[in-house]
Amino acid sequence: MPTFTYMTRCDGCGQCVDICPSDIMHIDPVYRRSYNIEPNFCWECYSCVKACPQHAIDVRGYADFAPLGHSVRVLREEASGTISWKIRYRDGREKAFSFPIRTTPWGSIKPPFEYAAPDAAALNSPLLAHEPEMLKVDTLPTLRTAAEPA
Amino acid sequence: MGLFSSRKTRVVDTDILVIGGGFGGCGAAYESRYWGRKLKVTVVEKANIERSGAVAHGLSAINCYMGMRWNENQPEDFVRYARGDLMGLVREDLIYDIARHVDGTVHLFEEWGLPIMTNPDTGHYLREGKWQVMIHGESYKPIIAEAARKSASEVHNRIMVTHLLMDATHPNRVAGAVGFNVRDGSFYVFRAKAVIVAAGGASHIFKPRSVGEGMGRTWYAPWSSASAYGLVLRAGAQMIQMENRIVLARFKDGYGPVGAWFLLLKALATNAYGERFEASMLEEMKSLVGKYAETTPLPTCLRNHAVLQEIKAGKGPIYMHTQDAIDTREKEEIGWEDFLDMTVGQAVVWASQNIDPKEKPSELITSEPYVMGSHATCSGAWASGPEDCAPADYQWGYNRMTTVEGLFGAGDTIGGSAHKFSSGSFTEGRIAGKAAVRYVMALAGNLPQAGEAQINTLREEIFKPLANHAIGKHEIVAGSVAPSYISPLHGLQRLEKIMDEYGGGISTQYMTSEPMLDRGLELLTMLKEDLDHIGAEGLHQLQRTWELKHRVWTSEAVLRHTLYRQETRWPGYYYRGDFPRLDDAAWHAFTASRYDAKTGEWLMSKLPVHHIIG
After folding, report:
1. Which among A131, A143, A148 is the top mutation candidate for probing chain B, defined by the most B β-carbons within 10 Å of its own β-carbon?
2. What is the distance between the alpha carbons of residues B126 and A84, in angstroms, rounded to a whole number?
3. What is the CATH number of the domain that holds B463?
4. Which of B18, B154, B527, B554 has the most crowded CB, counting CB atoms within 10 A?
5. Which pLDDT band, with edges at 50, 70 and 90, does A144 fall under?
6. Is A106 a member of any domain?
C-alpha cells in the first residue's frame, strides 16, 4: 500500500519520519502520531514498518489492484542479523519465511582512512582502493596492455 | 525577501561535494576519502542515506559481477553483452572500466557483511545468470550506508539540492550547489571545488499504469526524480542518449523482479493459450532491426516487443509459469525472498489476490517507460573516459568528468554505460571519487567562486512556490482549485499525460512520431512556463515542486532526443511511426544535446560510437 499507522500503538517517536525515503510519513499535529500524508507516493518499501519500535505501522495493499484481507508482516532483528516475514492470504492461508541480513556486527566496517595511506604515485594510476588484492586476480585488466604489448 | 525573510542560510564549504547518497554517492564518498585523506568530503541527500536511492528497499541479486578470480567472465565479455543488449550503442570504454573494477567492489561488500549466497558444489558465488549473483540483500543499503557515513566528513540528510552553482569567472566550471532543508526550510549553500552528481534517474515522467494509490508502485522508485539529469543539463553539460528510455517486462501491478524466476528457477513465459511466442517472432524482428535480432541473449527491448505484439494480438494475459518451477521448499524460499528483499509490494499483490506461485502462474506486463543510466539503458551525461582505455575523442580531462569542469557523475548520471546496476554504480562512484581527488589536488589556489548575485537569485527562485501558495490561497474559499497556482501533483499529472500521449508511453503502445513529438513539445513549453506558478503548501510540497522541475527539464531532453533520432533503434522501448526501422547507416551514433541556460536553446548533434572491443 501504502502504509498506515495504528492509533493505539504509535507513540509518536518519529523514527518512521526520519527513515522514509519518500518523505511521506509525518506526525499529525493533533494526535501527535505518525501517518502517511501521500499514499500515492508510497513504494511499499517497508522502511518505516521495519524501523518502527512499536510495530505500529502496517500496509494495506494499493486499492487500485489489491483486494482486502491480506497482510504481510515483518520483524527485522539487527542483533541476530535476521528478518522474518509472515504472509497471510485473503483466503486465510499463511506462509512464513526468515532470511539473514548481515554476516558481521553492525558498526564493524573499517573506514577507508584506517587503511595505510596509498603512495602519491598510485593516485595517477587506474587502481582503486585495495586493488589489485581485492580483485583477487594478479593485476587490474587494461585495454592498453592488450592493444600495445610491451 | 518579504514574506519569508526570517529564513536561515547555512553555508557549507567543502573540497568534494557528493550529491545523492545512493550507491553511486556512497561509492564516491568511500573512494574520495581513501585517496583524499586530508580533503573534506560532504554527502548531501534529500532523504536519509540509511534508506535512500533505488536500493532503499533492498535487492535480491547483484547484477554486475565478473567472477574474474574463478575465470567465469572477463570485462571484454561484459562489454559485448551490454553492447548487444543496447543494440550496438554504448560507451565501451566506460563499461569496460566498470567491469574491470566491479569484482573488487563486490568482494568489499562481502567483507563488510553482505550475505552473498554460494554454490555448494563449486564454492563460488551462486549465479542467478551469467552476470548476476544471488544475495540476502534486505540490508544491502544500510550496510553500504554505514561505510559511506564513516567515509564522509559530513552527511547532510533531508536536503533537496535544486541547482548547481557555477563559477563566476569561468562560466563552464562548477562551484557547488544550492538547495533547502526539507525539515526546517533553511537555505543551503554548498561551496565546493569538485561536485559529483550521483542523484537518481527518472520515474514518473511517463504516466504509470496505476494512477490511484498504486501510482506509488512504479517499478523504479517514486523518489527517483530525474535529479541526475535535471541538475547537470541545466549547468550546460552535454547529454547523450536521452531518448533511450527503458520499459520493463515484470509481474503485473507489483512490478516484482523476474530475473531469479527466469534465470535461476527456469520458469517459462507463455501467452494465455500456453504458447511460447518469442522464437516465432524472430523474422518480424529481423525486418525491423536486421542483424541485431540475432543477438544472444535477445536484447531486453526485443523481448518486450514480443510481449507487446502478443498482447496486441489479443493473446494476453502473458503468464510466467512459476508453478512449474517450484518443486522444493528451497526453491519456494528463493522465489519469495526475491520479492521480500526488494519488492514487498509483489508479495502483497499475491497475498491479496490469493496467488500462490507454487500453484498458479502470474501475469507479466510491460511497464511505463523510465529514464535511467544504470539499468538496461544508458541515458546521461557525456563523460571523459579512463585514461588507459578511452579513445582520444572520449577523453578531455578526468575520468567521469562531464563537459563541465569539476563536475563529475556516477550511476544514473553518466550516459552510455548501461548495466551498471548496484555494484557498477557504486564502482562508478569510486572511479569518479578518485578522479575528483586528483582534480581538486591539481586545482591548487585556482578556486571556483560562486558569487553572491547567483546565490541570491537562486534563493528567491527556490522558495517562490511557498509564496505562490501563501498569497494565492486567499483568493479562494478552500480546496485545491485556484486561478493563480497549481499544486506540484497537478503539474506532475500534466507532465505524465503529455509524455504518455505524445512521447511514446503506454497509451499509444510506446508509439510516437515527429508530429506527436512536436505537439508534445508545444504543450511541455506551456508546462515549463507554468512551473513558475506552482503553489507549495509547506516544505514537503516544496520538495515535490523541485522534483517536478527536475522531471520536466529532463522530459524536454527526452522529447528532443527522441525527435532527433530518426529511426526505431529499440523496438519494445519505443517506436517512431515515421521511421519504423533501425537505420545503422545514419544512426549508429550517440544523440547528444547541450542546453544553453542563457538562451534556452538546445544544440543537438551526433557523437561517434567507437568499438574498441572486438
Report:
1. A143
2. 22
3. 1.20.58.100
4. B18
5. confident
6. no
Q: How far, CA to CA in Å, does A131 sit from each of A138, B296, B310?
A: 9, 32, 48
Q: Are residues B438 and B495 in the same domain?
A: no
Verify whether the Cβ–Cβ distance B104 to A43 is below 8 Å. Answer: no
Task: Answer yes or no: is B4 within a domain.
Answer: no
Full domain range(s) for residue A130: 112-143
Catalytic residue from among A31, A41, A43, A62:
A43
Domain that holds residue B539: 452-583
A54 lies in the same domain as A125: no
Determine, yes or no, domain membership for B605.
no
Cα(B335)–Cα(B552) distance, rounded to whole angstroms? Answer: 37
Claim to verify: residue B90 and residue B167 sit in the same structural domain: yes
pLDDT tens column, B53-94: 999 999 999 999 999 999 999 999 999 999 999 999 999 999
The predicted-structure confidence for B369-391, as pLDDT tens digits, reads as follows 999 999 999 999 999 999 999 99
In a shared domain, residues B133 and B55: yes
Q: Considering only CB atoms, which chain B residues are within 8 Å of A129?
A: 30-31, 34-35, 430, 434
Contact A124, B438 (CB under 8 A): yes
Tell me the per-residue pLDDT of B327-359, one tens digit each, with 9 for 90 and over: 999 999 999 999 999 999 999 999 999 999 999
**Known catalytic residue at A43:** yes
CA B564 to CA B558: how far, in whole Å?
A: 10
Same-domain status, B87 and B138: yes
